């Protein structure tokens, strides 16, 4: 039911610090696998994409992510941005830009940030708590998918029980995508 009739605003926030092309392709495929599980349109699920390292940039706004025709080229444009990671920067971009109504955020539908991160973050637990509250005030939740050694307990502060660990980004497979889809569907019943 959720997959056929669900309407969500989903923003993928992708850590693209010094990432190889093969890893980027795994990330692109993973995002595509999740996205095509939902009806993508102006009146159904909308997809947004941001990428980050030291800085963050928008790849696809929610008001653009209303068709596969727009999603596929946006996925192809995800590239490596160099070393470093700044979670505060990307979460600020998602909260105040991507989740702005003028760029397609609809508060009558559940919002979700799928954070894919591959490196340790200097962001404090207190900062992550601030972003969790701020995103919740925008009717959005966060699921964090990260590399095992980079994940710390503080990510639970941001994502609650929605923290998934992988050994490397080549583990972003269909079964993990299904777990993310199941979590998104749970949002529709909250």
Automatic annotation (TrEMBL):
<dbReference type="Pfam" id="PF00092">
    <property type="entry name" value="VWA"/>
</dbReference>
<dbReference type="InterPro" id="IPR002035">
    <property type="entry name" value="VWF_A"/>
</dbReference>
<feature type="domain" description="VWFA">
    <location>
        <begin position="9"/>
        <end position="184"/>
    </location>
</feature>
<protein>
    <recommendedName>
        <fullName>VWFA domain-containing protein</fullName>
    </recommendedName>
</protein>
<dbReference type="InterPro" id="IPR036465">
    <property type="entry name" value="vWFA_dom_sf"/>
</dbReference>
<dbReference type="InterPro" id="IPR050525">
    <property type="entry name" value="ECM_Assembly_Org"/>
</dbReference>
């Amino acid at each position: 039911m959720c997959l056929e009739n669900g309407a969500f605003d989903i923003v993928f926030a992708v850590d693209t610090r010094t990432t190889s092309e093969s890893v980027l392709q795994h990330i692109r495929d993973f995002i595509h696998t999740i996205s095509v599980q939902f009806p993508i349109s102006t009146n159904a699920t909308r997809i947004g994409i941001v990428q980050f390292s030291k800085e963050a940039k928008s790849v696809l706004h929610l008001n653009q992510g209303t068709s596969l025709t727009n999603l596929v080229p946006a996925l192809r444009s995800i590239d490596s941005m160099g070393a470093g990671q700044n979670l505060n920067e990307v979460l600020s971009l998602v909260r105040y830009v991507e989740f702005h109504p003028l760029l397609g955020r609809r508060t009558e539908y559940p919002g979700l940030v799928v954070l894919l991160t591959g490196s340790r973050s200097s962001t404090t637990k207190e900062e992550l708590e601030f972003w969790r509250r701020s995103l919740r005030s925008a009717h959005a939740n966060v699921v964090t998918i990260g590399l095992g050694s980079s994940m710390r307990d503080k990510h639970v502060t941001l994502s609650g029980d929605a923290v998934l660990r992988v050994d490397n980004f080549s583990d972003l497979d269909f079964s993990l995508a299904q777990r993310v889809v199941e979590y998104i569907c749970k949002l529709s019943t909250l």
